[in-house]
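Give me structure tokens for this 246-residue protein.
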Amino acid sequence: MKLDIDKIIFEAPVEKSFAALARRFEMDVSTMRYRLMKERKLEFVKQVIFWATDGKRFKMKKREMNASSEVEKFNSRYIVNPTSNCWEWVGTIRPNGYGVMYIKKERLKLAYAHRVAWSIFHGELIPGMVIDHQCRNRRCVNPQHLRQVTPKVNATENSLSVSAVNAQKSFCKNGHEFSIENTYHRPDGGGRCCKKCIMKRLAENPRFETAEQIKARAQRYYKKNKQKILERCREYRRKKKCLNMH
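Here you go.
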């Protein structure tokens, strides 16, 4: 069904609500709002209804005016995308693309809309876990499109981040395979390196030395500066002895 935008704008001051407009044009409220949003006329229709209601504060759904629970508030702030079945958040959107809403616990708190959706439909989030959007739509709050994962899985799976792209590579930039024998995992968890490339850099760059080379250089330094080192040691012992006496 093709949406007649001009006719909707003409009828908006008469009907004075989205629910009445939807009944007038025989369609679902969420579908009407979604199509208006795609045509970039949603805000204009909101203003028309705002003026028609004598300046009363307008909400996306009438039931939100009397909403007494977080569930009702949540349900009044999304629209269903009929193509992807995403519940797209129409409330406040942060610069990072995620929707937010205020919830009341000990005090009023700003929370991400997709985390609120998870707590409503699946219960409280396990500490240390995060919510992953399987549809890759940050505005989506459909609980069927969400899953609870670890931060590592969230960064490496179902993602286009640098970490995810590098995790899928099976060869280093020089063409060496990341096999079990040829892969070095950094102890700080910062990633993996190719052992063949490491050995090549050690051989070509004099700044990188093996343990034997470092030991030999230390011995040469000691033989060359033996008297200075011994004198420093004697001076250190004298100072330490004086401190202990006091």
